[in-house]
Write a structure and sequence with these properties.
InterPro entries: TPR-like_helical_dom_sf. This is Putative cellulose synthase operon protein C. Helix content is about 70%, strand content about 0%. The chain contains 29 helices and no strands. Among the domains are: about 120 residues, Serine Threonine Protein Phosphatase 5, Tetratricopeptide repeat, CATH 1.25.40; about 150 residues, Serine Threonine Protein Phosphatase 5, Tetratricopeptide repeat; about 45 residues, no CATH class. The N and C termini lie far apart (about 110 Å). α6 runs antiparallel to α7 and α15 runs antiparallel to α16. The longest helix has about 30 residues.
């Protein structure tokens, strides 16, 4: 067995009775204390026994060079387990401290609090009396008294509150904490517990943060309280940046559990943050410590280096396309790799009907990363519309063959878009073959006119009318003209709706009668037109155009 000789005089130090203590391990030893009269040899022998017997943690053995340093390590171990909430392990270390240093005020205080919280009020009162006699006026006296007072309260509310808190029923848990405390202010670990719960209660966040700040101010050396404060702050966008700054400091804590939790919360808050250009430094600070984090690095790459990108999307939401275009271009000048700014510019160009440029930008985005669903959809629309513009240009130049080649591809690849069908019909109309074009389409549906009309957008209705005009007799054309005139795309159907509204509003029966008659004739016209078109198609024996 190895003995450690102590120096002639123990080092003086300060005594604090706080929730979380410092880690200096040096304590004041007064001459009035009885243990000062013990043989230093006996004390050294006791410490050596603790170390060799494994009663101290492996870390403690590195500090067992003197009695004060060994006691300091015991203090740190006790505080560690108190912070972790393991009161059994903490009690073991406080008891060892009392064996080495009888009437130690901090050990007496914490043992008294633990006893009161465990319901052993008799033991708590004994420790309170012992502390009062050995250290009158010590702050720990009031702490033990408060713990005893709380220990007399109805514990069932505390147990129920903790159960509801675990189940994330925070409002109910907070109410049960209030029932348990009965107006008494929470102290110690319970204060931290109650304030954490209160922060999750609607409309109580500010009050909870205020309480946590006050608790941290009373215990400035408590890493655990500061961690709880920081993790509470990151739950709201307006306080998240303050929480990030605090977590970056706590990630360097010498307490392994605190530093680990701080790093995890730091990363989570960066993911939650609605980052602005000024926030890039927050991400860079994290990556300076943890450069291997791919997720945070990707988030940093998406943050614009200026506010122009955000301005661009703002103008775009207001449909102010010129301002949006300029903002996105300035953002790309500041950062040519900003794909989000490029995406915004593509939307603007699409709205300006600059389809080729839109497709080129989206192709560039696709070369570096997979397109998102909305980007893929816009890319398909841009390609379709650009090919439609090219086919119109070929028709204008009377290159019908090239136009039909493009249109046939569009009809095959995008059956959901009717513009190519309409333009193909236009190409046949120019050759006086409009009937054949309609017949070719109508063969796929028993109601040929309705099938064609439903696939033609309102702006193409005039073309559809001109197709039929070239080959139809007067009666049939009259019916068709009425149908086109009253269609939703012609501009006259909304007039009928307004007419019905006027009739209803002003109780004018004549208008109502007229509107009803027109609508009735419209429905009848649809039926007559369908029958006429079907007979015409049946009689048509000509060949389809190639």
């Amino acid at each position: 067995m190895v003995c450690f000789l102590l120096p002639d005089r123990t080092k003086g130090g300060r005594h604090e009775n706080q929730e979380n203590s410092g880690s200096s391990g040096e304590w004041r030893v007064t001459q009035g204390e009885s243990h000062a009269r013990l043989s230093r040899y006996v004390l050294s022998l006791t410490l050596a026994t603790l170390v060799s017997g494994g009663l101290l943690s492996p870390e403690s053995r590195t500090y067992a060079l003197s009695g004060d340093e060994a006691l300091g390590q015991l203090y740190r171990n006790a505080r560690f387990w108190m912070n972790r909430g393991d009161l059994v392990r903490a009690t073991e270390f406080w008891t060892r401290i009392l064996h080495l240093r009888p009437n130690d005020p901090r050990a007496l205080t914490n043992l008294g609090i633990v006893a009161a919280q465990g319901g052993d009020l008799k033991k708590a009162n004994i420790l309170l009396d012992r502390l009062s006699r050995s250290h009158p006026g010590d702050p720990g006296i009031e702490k033990i008294r408060s713990a005893i007072l709380l220990g007399k309260l109805d514990v069932k509310w505390l147990l129920l509150a903790r159960k509801e808190r675990k189940e994330q029923h925070f409002s109910a848990a907070y109410q049960d904490y209030e029932r348990y405390l009965k107006g008494s202010p929470p102290r110690g670990g319970l204060a931290l517990e109650v304030l954490q719960t209160e922060s999750a209660v609607p409309d109580h966040f500010r009050n909870a943060v205020r309480g946590l700040r006050q608790l941290a101010a009373r215990h400035p050396e408590s890493h655990r309280i500061r961690l709880v404060l920081a993790r509470t702050l990151i739950n709201r966008e307006d306080t998240r940046r303050e929480g990030l700054e605090l977590l970056s400091v706590l990630s360097r804590s010498p307490l392994a559990d605190v530093s680990g939790e701080a790093r995890a919360s730091w990363r989570t808050a960066l993911i939650w943050l609605h980052a602005r250009p000024v926030d890039r430094k927050l991400y860079k600070a994290y990556l300076a410590r943890y450069p291997q984090d791919i997720v945070v690095r990707r988030l940093l790459s998406r943050i614009p280096k200026s506010d122009e990108r955000g301005n661009g999307f703002y103008f775009l939401s207001k449909n102010r396309l010129l301002q949006a275009n300029k903002s996105f271009q300035r953002a790309l000048l500041a950062d040519p790799s900003d794909k989000e700014a490029a995406w915004g510019l593509a939307i603007v160009l699409m709205k300006q009907k600059r389809f080729q440029e839109t497709a080129e930008i989206l192709s560039w985005i696709r070369s570096g990363q997979a397109l998102r669903p909305e980007q893929s959809s816009l890319f398909r629309e841009a390609v379709y519309d650009e090919d439609l513009v090219r086919s119109r240009q070929f028709l204008h130049e009377r290159d019908v063959s090239e136009a039909r080649t493009i249109l046939a591809t569009l009809i095959k690849n995008r059956p959901d878009r009717p513009e190519a069908v309409g333009l193909m019909g236009e190409s046949y109309r120019r050759e006086n073959r409009a009937d054949r074009a309609l017949n070719r389409k109508a063969e796929r549906d028993p109601h040929p006119f309705l099938a064609v009309l439903d696939r033609i957008r309102p702006e193409n209705l005039d073309r559809a009318r001109s197709w039929l005009w070239s080959k139809r007799d007067g009666d049939t054309m009259t019916v068709f003209s009425r149908r086109v005139f009253l269609s939703s795309g012609s501009g006259h159907f909304p007039f009928l709706i307004r007419l019905r509204y006027v009739a209803y509003k002003f109780k004018i029966g004549l208008f109502l009668l007229v509107a009803g008659a027109i609508l009735f004739l419209t429905i009848r016209a649809d039926r007559v037109l369908t029958e006429t078109m079907y007979r015409r198609l049946t009689d048509d024996k000509g060949e389809e155009p190639s």
